[in-house]
């Protein structure tokens, strides 16, 4: 029996249009070969820019944006998809090969009901009648664990949660009984506690329907749970390709080893955590006209230490940061530095009070003015707080750039000319420029690739040691908490469920939610998913 | 009762029926706007320099004659009294009598408004489908020759002042190649076809003026929608091009297109003063300009109010249609 999908010597190029110059051809992917048997799952793994999505989409003969597949073959049941005309390839898409994207929330059309979108491809390709398709959709909703499978399809995309939408998108892909599904980071946008359910649902659905899959992700621990084989990619080329067990347990290449052992930080938790340097006590907060988001939250962080706040989206952890910075004045409660209360609202705080508390955001991209150079971005707080200008300002900016390990030659660059990791470093330098005492880090590494994120965490810890900074580190990633925190606060639906030294919070006995959270973090060994599902007590609130 | 408990039923209502609540809010806003406009028109007209009596009497404006006319027209009453009387009459459709001709303003306006609507209707009939069609065409051939030609021509048209476009058309189609009728005067008892023929030039001018705006908005709205992830989903389902555009792109591009169309329809009725004057077309615009020159206040006020009402009503309709087109409001969580 021939292979279902055989990709030979794939070459993918893009055309870029630098302003004022002639268009340039860039090779994105070159020399990729793999085969996939019926019913098997191949994991494609790599950092962003590795070309994994581009390769996945070649199974649908689709190039996103200006991307063009210019060489090689993609044989589906022996027929070359890349040689087909538009009409032939349309007959394959949505019928034999389907696609599940990273953001189901954006990939569903907001104007139509979920059910109609799920069965659309099956009807258009005349694979089944409307009644059959509806029945199959309900069956798929059921095995994917969606509520009220019979009527779920009547809802509109905005009426269901992100995790449910991601499962519905899987149902949409499975509906036409395709031979192959391309999963493009299907759980990356979800909370860990939700991710695990979606992951389990996808795995079960793949097994039950005997569909083959290309599973694209940057998270090796995730792909280890679902795939039979793994291909590691870097800069559009193959690094390593083999059975999952071999890649995880005996990686041959250095790069793969680095991915497997990405969390290299070991941080000794501070012994004395009693001194309340920065403190929030009895915080209650709500948005206008909305429900209460924070209910009686009290916590503190000593000087030179890191407090990690963990919880899923909607748990109130970012709201806590907004209250601390004065962006959202609380309904009750107080924020104090060294025992001195800070005014509740941002506008009432003095310049010096503002200086002491700085913020680093999740998306460095949107937190910087794209029309300002690195020098202007970092120099602004220098001028604002200290009145430093001109050559002195440039000198100080360069000093800060040295501290974030970026060196010469960046002052005149614009954010668009920097990589994701460099942008986040510039954001850190901007916070440092104010000479703060406390920095609130709101998921500063969650948009970054694991190796880059690791570098940022190292940098933050170094700076903490040198300058005695206190961090309030908001994250949903327990692995990061383990790596950098001194104390930990666990948030669940607006309440503080657990707070204390890391060693205590992360040791049993656990409350139900902390237990769920800890168990949901993907671990880099085979069979982890099954073990966890067998021992869970409660479900995530995001489901 | 605390203020909060007073608002609670409204909050509960808007949670349960966001669509109805939004539409009601929009309607309410329109009425508030309209009332504000009546105040502004009344005060604005009051503040106009010059005085009807002096203008009307010209050289023979003795103080007694002026005072006579003023009291005859009720101008000696306090401002507030005159405003309330005027508003009360206007609501019941009575705009008083023209000071210049002594005839009923409502009657005169009825005919003029009909003419203006006639002109606007045919301009819209050509401009809306043409601009939406050209917008679609521009998207279909995006960044290629047809797109560029459409863009350059429509931008050129919108960059020229409308009176210039009007005179240009007159020069070409009346002076050089006498094919069109000028002036575009219409009168009672004119048969439909002749009427159409005589408005050809003003319609063409108006179309040229509003085309680019609507075309570019349509193009931008569709391009915006085409680049969203759900369009890729549709493409990867193997749907054909036409279905993708009609079923998946159009419903989501509707709101911005409706808005720009409404804005331009309003312009076609309200903003045609210059075009009507250039083509000597007996519409509302020209009526208002004539009234302003002789300080015929009831006419100016009535025209201003009707223009404002049309403008507000069209924008409100567009907003309400856009609200209805939003599935999030139609189907709350």
TrEMBL record, chain A:
Q: Which UniProt keywords apply?
A: ATP-binding, Nucleotide-binding, Transport
Gene Ontology cellular-component terms listed: plasma membrane
Which intervals hold domain ABC transporter? 5-260, 278-518
Its chief place of residence is membrane
The subcellular location is:
Cell inner membrane
Provide the membrane topology annotation: Peripheral membrane protein
**Keyword presence, Nucleus:** no
Any GO MF annotation of the entry = ATP hydrolysis activity
Answer whether the UniProt record assigns the keyword Nucleotide-binding to this protein.
Answer: yes
Which GO BP terms, alphabetically? peptide transport; transmembrane transport
Q: Which InterPro entries match?
A: AAA+_ATPase, ABC_transp_ATP-bind, ABC_transporter-like_ATP-bd, ABC_transporter-like_CS, Oligopep_ABC_C, P-loop_NTPase
Q: Which family does it belong to?
A: Belongs to the ABC transporter superfamily.
Please report the name of this protein according to its UniProt entry: Peptide/nickel transport system ATP-binding protein
Q: Which organism is the protein's source?
A: Cohaesibacter marisflavi
From TrEMBL, chain B:
Q: Per UniProt, what is the membrane topology?
A: Multi-pass membrane protein
**Does the keyword field hold Transmembrane helix?**
yes
Q: Where is the ABC transmembrane type-1 domain?
A: 113-318
A cellular component annotation (GO) from this entry: plasma membrane
* Any single biological process term in GO: transmembrane transport
Where does the chain cross the membrane?
A: 27-45, 117-139, 151-178, 198-215, 253-279, 299-325
Where is it mainly found? membrane
Q: Where does the record place it?
A: Cell membrane
What family is this protein classified in? Belongs to the binding-protein-dependent transport system permease family.
Listed name of the protein: Peptide/nickel transport system permease protein
Per the UniProt record, the source organism is Cohaesibacter marisflavi
